[in-house]
Amino acid sequence: MRPCAYLEGYHFKVITDHIALKLLNNIESPSGRIARWALELQQYDFEISYRKGQLNIVADALSRQPLQETSRRVSVEDDEQPREQQGCRLLEEMQGNMKQQPQKFPDYLEEDGKLYRHIPHRAGNEEVASWKMCVPIGQRQRVMTENHDHDSHPA
Known about the structure:
The chain has six helices and seven strands. By secondary structure, it is an alpha+beta fold. The chain has two domains: 5-63, no CATH class; 81-148, no CATH class. The longest helix is centred in the middle third of the chain and has 12 residues, at 89-100.
């Protein structure tokens, strides 16, 4: 079942604080991603109305609820990673810069020969610290393929 199958055949109203979305149906010659979205949405009978985010209290409360993590975890092999990082000039440069001037790179951390970057994000009203491993160039294609080539990823 498609995610929005329950909307087919019904007229519904989308209330959004994203003003550009209201203009989506008025674009004369959309291209790229916008064209794909416009084509996908043509099958539904709906209208879009704009409401300031401050006034859209229900949606605001829903969007601020913390979500359970649903992302896939792709492992970069521990034995391959340091060797791959050594072959990646960009990561080697960053590690060298960190050793010379660590105060300039507070969002980076080297642990067990691996380089990590701190990427803060919000979950509800609180900021959550998240350290992401810097993926060597030689493994990026595999990581992207493993994350995008499965049923739960939108096309």
